[in-house]
Specification:
Chain A: GO terms for molecular function: ATP binding; ATP hydrolysis activity. Chain A: Interacts with MinC and FtsZ. Chain A: Pfam families: CbiA. Chain A: Belongs to the ParA family. MinD subfamily. The complex is a heterodimer. Chain A contains 14 helices and eight strands. Chain A has helices at about 15-30, 45-50, 60-65, 70-75, 100-110, 125-130, 145-160, 165, 185, 195-200, 215-220, 225-230, 235-245, 260-265, and strands at about 5-10, 35-40, 75, 85, 115-120, 135-140, 175-180, 205-210. An eight-stranded mixed sheet of chain A has the order 3-4-2-5-1-6-7-8, sandwiched between helices. The longest helix of chain A has 14 residues, at about 15-30. Chain B is of the alpha+beta class. The longest helix of chain B has 19 residues, at about 15-30. In chain B, about 5% of the residues are buried. The chains are: A alpha/beta, B alpha+beta. The interface between A and B is medium-sized, with 27 and 28 residues.
């Protein structure tokens, strides 16, 4: 049965789109049939991070308003057969998304895919609530930084009240994805530790993504980081998180890709 | 400035943690319990099962949130053999 997952955070710039692309590609690489859906109408970016910006013809709004069929708007990934993208509109605004229209598209996506991953816009208004409305599972992306943790707390509140699952009186399955984590700085008391964030937000941990240059490198190239350099620390962390999402018990660790002195001196690559 | 004060200047994470704990305790008390419907459902099931054997998935609790008024809809299916007069009880508040 299809699972709808929302990647959300409240705050902008914490890594929702990066995480959507990386988790989507990791699940697809595991053989799952995955669609990533951009809900950020007017500020779409998932197409760019996925490297499909020149292939967008129709978008979510066209499908919602009946101007295009779903199959016409879906973009099949060139690297992974089982990965598709449903882009957002860049020219319309979020009011063009109707609740009924989204209901219809989500029902259709549920029939076609194993995973429907919704990339939420930032904020707590209509866009984010529409993105989370149909979710069975929520991934709350948080940086170890005060404003991000506060906004995540707010979003957790919305997940427990504004979703269809919450309205049915069911408990939303929420997971924390801690991104841009620097274990060395946390150890020196310069950054909130994993346990601090977990204690404050009290939702289970899905993964810890270490701060890494690989993330920017991947977005420069328009490739999800899990495909760009699968051996890198953030790629391993995202792949582990994807395995946990599909129910595999994987021990929690913070992968690191610190290079040795030689690597630091000579290992610089151009992206 | 001695070595100790240099070290203390660095450990700012405990300050962040404490500020967040105080702030969020305050903000949560304003917005109220966010998983209210799930909590209500559990407690309603607990009360009903004291008197009647009902299946958990036959208890539906729905909250419609409006700007001025929110409505709570509770629907409980009770097996007919146990309650011949009222096979389903509905309440809206």
């Amino acid at each position: 049965m299809a699972k709808v997952l929302v990647v959300t955070s409240g705050k902008g710039g914490v890594g929702k789109t990066t995480s959507t692309a990386a988790l989507g590609a990791a699940l697809a690489a595991m053989g799952q049939n995955v669609v990533v859906v951009d809900f950020d109408v007017g500020l779409r970016n998932l197409d760019l991070v996925m490297g499909a910006e020149r292939r967008v013809v129709y978008d979510l709004i066209n499908v919602v308003q009946g101007d295009a069929k779903l199959a016409q708007a879906l973009i099949r990934d060139k690297r992974l057969d089982s990965l598709s993208l449903l882009p957002a509109s860049q020219t319309r605004d979020k009011d063009a998304l109707s609740e009924e229209g989204v209901d219809k598209v989500m029902a259709e996506l549920r029939e076609k895919f194993d995973w429907v991953i919704c990339d939420s816009p930032a904020g707590i208004e209509r866009g984010p609530t529409l993105a989370m409305r149909h979710a069975d599972v929520a991934v709350v992306v948080t940086n170890p930084e005060v404003s991000s943790v506060r906004d995540s707390d707010r979003i957790i509140g919305l997940l427990d009240s504004k979703t269809l699952k919450a309205e049915r009186g069911e408990r939303m399955d929420k997971h924390l994805l801690l991104t841009r984590y620097d274990p060395a700085r946390a150890e020196r008391g310069e950054m909130l530790k994993v346990d601090d964030v977990l204690e404050i937000l009290s939702i289970p941990l899905l993964g810890i993504i270490p701060e890494s240059q690989e993330v920017l490198r991947a977005s420069n190239l328009g490739t999800p980081v899990t495909l760009c350099n699968p051996a890198s620390a953030p790629a391993k962390a995202y792949s582990d998180a994807a395995r946990r999402l599909s129910g595999e018990p994987i021990a929690m660790a913070v992968p690191n890709d610190r290079r040795g002195l030689f690597g630091k001196l000579f290992g610089r690559r151009a992206a | 400035m001695n070595l100790l004060s240099l070290f203390q200047k660095r450990a700012t994470a405990p300050v962040a943690r404490e500020r967040l704990q105080i702030l969020l305790a305050h903000e949560r008390s304003i917005t109220g319990r966010t998983d209210l419907v799930a909590v209500l459902r559990e407690e309603i099931i607990a009360v009903i099962t004291k008197h009647v054997a009902v299946e958990r998935d036959k208890v539906q609790v729905k909250m419609e949130r409006g700007d001025a008024v929110s409505t709570l809809e509770v629907e409980i299916e009770i097996p007919t053999a146990l309650a011949p007069a009222e096979s389903a009880a509905s309440a809206a508040a």
